[in-house]
Amino acid sequence: MSESSSSLPITLESIGGWPELISLLLDRRDIDAAYARAAMANILAGSATPAQLIGFVVALRAKGETPEEISGLLDAVLAAATLVPLDESLRDRAIDIVGTGGDRSHSINVSTMAAIV
Asked: Is residue 73 part of a domain?
């Protein structure tokens, strides 16, 4: 379950799609970073159905996440991120203060207030 350095990146389709990936996780088999990256790339592209997304997350959590799986998920998120172009003079002083909001913890979201300050 890995991609060789000379091959193209693994896609979800190349590993049998969601049914195969979720079956591996339900069998409590660890997946490598390339498989996790392919799954997250599919999710972030908006190609996963709600049922596929839920099945993946629940099966992964039930099995228990490995550092390699988390690394693959993060790789896909970073690859999909949009970099904000900043002037050279701002790069050392700029910080990201955004929160996710909507966490239902009934806490105050300070990121909006911090942006004003």
From this structure: yes
**CA-to-CA distance for 16 and 31, rounded, in angstroms?**
13
> pLDDT tens digit string along 43-58?
999 999 999 999 999 9
Domain annotation covers residue 40: yes
In this prediction the pTM is: 0.73
DSSP H or E segment with residue 86: none
Task: With beta carbons less than 8 A apart as the criterion, state whether 75 and 37 touch.
Answer: yes
- For the chain, what is the domain count? 1
CA 72 to chain centre: 8
| Domain that includes residue 62, residue range | 13-83
CATH code for the domain of 40: 1.20.970.10
Q: Tell me how many degrees the CA angle 49-55-56 measures, rounded to the nearest 5.
A: 90
The single residue listed with the structure tokens 């993946």 is 56
- Is pLDDT of 4 > 60? no
DSSP 8-state secondary structure symbol assigned to residue 49: -
Provide the 8-state DSSP code for 13: G
